[in-house]
Structure formats: structure tokens, C-alpha cells
Write a structure and sequence with these properties.
The chain is an alpha/beta fold. Helix content is 41%, strand content 13%.
Length: 425
Amino acid sequence: MLKRFIPLSIKRKLKAFQIQIQIKKVKNAHAHALISVRTHQPIKVAFFLVLESIWKYEHLYFLLKNDSRFQPIVFVCPFVTYGEENMQIEMKRAYDSFIQKGYEVQTTQLKNGSWLDVKESFQPDIVFFTSPWKISLNQYYIHHYLDTLSCYVPYGFNSCDLYQTHYNEDMQNFCWKYFVETDFHQQLARKYSLRKGDNTVVTGFPGIDNLMDKSYVPQQVWKPQTKLKKHIIWAPHHTLPEKDNMLDYATFLTYADLFWQLTEKFKDEVQFCFKPHPNLRVKLNKPEVWGKEKTDTYFKQWEEGENTQLNEGDYIDLFLGSDAMIHDSGSFVLEYFATEKPVMFLVNNEKSFQQFNQLGKEALQNMYLGYNQEDIIHFIEHVVVQGNDEFMLKRRKFQREVLAPGNTRLASENIYQILCEELKG
């Protein structure tokens, strides 16, 4: 009853005070855990995978796997946000894909339908999380691992202005190591985190390692065609107009019909890939938006089209085999720069620009912007097909001087070196 009369400002201060106390406890627990981990081998490393499309640890995983001091395992965790059917689809997709790629992978759902307690069964020394959101079960969230050496890498190269969300939630405040993309992102953590970003380490963004690794050989994931065509990715975001949206990027409902028409208009010159955000399909399934039947029909036509395809999983090889991208995704604003290929950002409205941080705003100044269908068609015809790429030099300069790691190593190599140094004492 008393809580109803406490001013909001006081409640916030009390919550911050409680978090500060918890941070001190976590730091102490991590110090003790580190001493313990240094005394034995192999060091057990658990990677918690919720969605294949936000997996950023491939290069790091295999660095650890090839080092006899480590025993890494990927645990496929349930994505519970959008119901049982979607959860099962995502878990199967991730498990099958990772088995094929040579990971040691284990699903967390047991045959009797119960859920594996990884902390009890595997007893990991280090845990890597893939998402800060509470999109899985509690036993796969950081609160269950406050006394374990926990690590977090952002699931996207952060370009948006959700500072509290990206730097001051429990994941960022309670993890042992928070590996951030650039010095700019570390400064944001120091400004907005209750622990002043003292657990952050600038490593670069491991999600783009294979895009930057010249020795990496991508698989051919584009459909065979009867003639040589340009490869364009269309990657729409999931932030459809709805109540309490934190971001307002999505242009899908505006351009869904147009892009399908463009696949016919440019069928002799361009092969298109529809790469939706993993949350877009389930939002379109809602009866008040499109409904499941219309959504399934739309996705299926992209999957089966002669010069079209659908990608709902890992996208690194897709990026490397592409010639250009058109999107409205916050993460891809910075990620696709690593390819140094032409890119257009679709502008939903002028408010969109206000939802980026300073680095995101600088990135937008170095790419093509699409405000309408004429801009989109011009980009495809003149920039991609004809090769009149006026942003090429600016784009490369921004990638190499601003976004690339500050040393010659890949981000995953930096993380690996940090782990090795910490664990040897």
C-alpha cells in the first residue's frame, strides 16, 4: 500500500541503489570465480543461442574449440516471446544449422518436455549470452549466473539511441565482460551504465569478423540462375506501427507490394533475397496486421520465385555473395559497411533520424537514403545495375577509419586473447 504513495523519482533512486549493491556482490563473485577457474582445465564454456539470426560468436567458438584448454558447447535455448509453434521452429532451425556447421551443440528441451539446467548439468566456467532481452526462460538469463564468469557481445552493431536499454540493463551491469564495438560505444557505456562501463572492453564487433576475414571462403547461398545477375538483399525491420514502440524504422507495409513488383521488373538483371527481421513474420501473423495466411503466402512466393529467395537464418554468406542491400534495420546500418558494397537505408519518416546515436547518424551520411519508390528504383537501376556508385569512396573510408577494430586482429581474436590473459592470471 505504501508503494503507491512513493514518488517515482524516489522509486528510481531506490532501484538504482539496489542495483549498485548487486553490482558490488557480482564483482566479488566474479573475482572468486576467476581464481577458481584458473586452477583447472578444460575450461567449460557455454554459449546460449536463442535465435540463429543473432548469433555473433562463430569465429570465437572455433578459436576456443581448437584450443585444448577450452571445452565450448552451444546450447539452443527456447525463444518464448511468440508462442510454442514459433519456438519449436526457431529451435529446430538453429540446431540443424549448427550441427551442419560442425558445432558441438545441445538442445535445452529434453525428451520429456522439461528444460535442461545447464548450470547444474554442464557446470560452465564461462557463459556467453547472445541477447540482453528476456526472450527465453529464466534459467538461461544472467540472473541465474551471477556467480559465473559471464560475457556479452551486442547482437547487433549498435547504431540506435536506446542508451538505457543497451548500456544500463541487468545484462550489461551484471556480466563479467561486456565486449563493445568501438571506443564510441565504450564512452556510451561509461555515461549511461550504473557501473560506469568498468566491465567493458573494446574489441570490435565479432558479428562482422567473417565479412572482414580475407581468408574466409563463403558458401554459395544464392540460387543458381541461367545468367549472371546482380544480387540485392531487401532486409525489412520488424517495428511495425504499434503501441509502445521504442523504435519506428519499419517501412515493410509501405513497400511490400513494390518489392515483389520489382522482382519482375528487374528479373533479367537482378536476383533478390528477402531477409526479414526474425520478429517480422510473427508480427505480420497477427489478424489485425496481415494474418497468418497472407503472411505465409507472401513469404512462400519469395522462397519459390525464379529470381527470388528467402533467408530467415544466418546471413554472413548471404552478405558476402551480395552486390547491394536495401533495408531499414538499425543493426545493418553499421554491419553491412564491412562489405564495402552499396547500401540504401529506407527512411520511414523524419523521426527515424532522431532514433540513431551519433555514429549511426554519421553512417547514414555515407549511404544512399530512400524516401519513396522512385529513390528505390533509381538505386537499383543506376547504382547497382549500371555501377554508378558515388558513395563508394566515402563508404570505404568510414568503414576503415571508424568501424574497423583498432588493431590488425579480428574482434573474436581480441576476445580470445583477453580470455587467455585473464585466465592465466
